[in-house]
Design goal:
By secondary structure, the protein is mostly helical. It has seven helices and three strands; from the N terminus they run βαααβαααβα. The chain has a three-stranded antiparallel sheet with strand order 2-1-3. It is globular and about 45 Å long.
């Protein structure tokens, strides 16, 4: 039986501090953002998460992006406001290369 390798990515660490106030506390995170507390701990720690989780998280955060003051400072539109396209492009990063599996190191 073969295992399907899950695609992983990282939420841009430069955006995590700004996102923090949207998350709320451990009891509120699921209703506010749609992820578990454990997933938030991974995101806040810069660890890779599944693509499906990251895209759900991104959609929820982008829906409330106008409430995040730091986003407007990092992604301003020339005429004022928030450049949603630039924010969306910067939100997710590829997962860093992982260490080789132990079996792959054997010759």
């Amino acid at each position: 039986m073969s295992e399907k390798k899950q695609r992983m990515c990282v939420v841009n660490p430069d955006l995590v501090d700004e996102i923090g106030h949207l998350v709320g506390g451990q009891c509120e995170i699921m209703t506010r953002i749609g992820i578990s507390w454990n997933s938030w701990i991974k995101i806040a720690g810069g660890l890779p998460v599944r693509h499906s989780l990251a895209h759900r998280f991104k959609a929820r955060v982008l829906a409330d992006a106008d409430r995040v003051e730091g986003f407007q400072q990092k992604f301003p539109l020339p005429g004022g406001g928030l450049d949603y396209a630039a924010l969306e492009d910067a939100f997710l990063l590829p997962s860093p290369a992982t260490r080789a599996e132990p079996n792959m190191l054997r010759s």
